[in-house]
Structure to design on (151 residues):
């Protein structure tokens, strides 16, 4: 009989004795001190982007992870169909692969204080020239796009 999710271990012990706790449906695996998330959508989302957006998204993720924040990219380029399903704007920059959304592993967007998002947004603007959704008239704090670069 196949294992049920409740039968799965709640932690994984790697060869070096490090312990990675499983977080909901994610499967963190620790190897040589670097945590890799098997179901992390970040790489696929980044690879879906336009090259300029991809470079900025990757830079932001690396900077955050170096600072100990497990930042993930949860949405990159969207097909018109997916964009409709998620309630994206009709002329969304996601349609051209020039926008991406982030999330911090283990937190919903609204569980993270506004001040933290402001710091991330300012960092992304300053270091990568990104436009941060937190400054929109209808704020979208986990969204970044290239309108400031390309406009
Ligand atoms: Zn977005």
């Amino acid at each position: 009989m196949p294992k049920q999710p409740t039968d799965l271990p709640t932690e994984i012990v790697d060869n070096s004795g490090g312990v990675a706790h499983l977080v909901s449906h994610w499967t963190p695996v620790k190897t040589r001190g670097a945590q890799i998330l098997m179901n992390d959508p970040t790489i696929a989302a980044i690879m879906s982007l336009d090259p300029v957006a991809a470079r900025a998204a990757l830079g932001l993720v690396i900077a955050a992870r170096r600072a100990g924040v497990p930042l993930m990219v949860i949405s990159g380029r969207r097909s018109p169909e997916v964009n409709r399903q998620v309630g994206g704007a009709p002329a969304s920059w996601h349609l051209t692969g020039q926008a991406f959304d982030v999330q911090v592993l283990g937190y919903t967007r609204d569980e993270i204080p506004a001040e933290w998002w402001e710091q991330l947004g300012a960092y992304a603007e300053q270091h990568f020239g990104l436009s941060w959704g937190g400054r929109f008239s209808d704020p979208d704090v986990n969204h970044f796009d290239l309108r400031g670069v390309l406009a």
Notes: The first helix runs from residue 42 to 47. The first strand starts at residue 11 and ends at 13. DSSP finds five helices and eight strands in the chain.
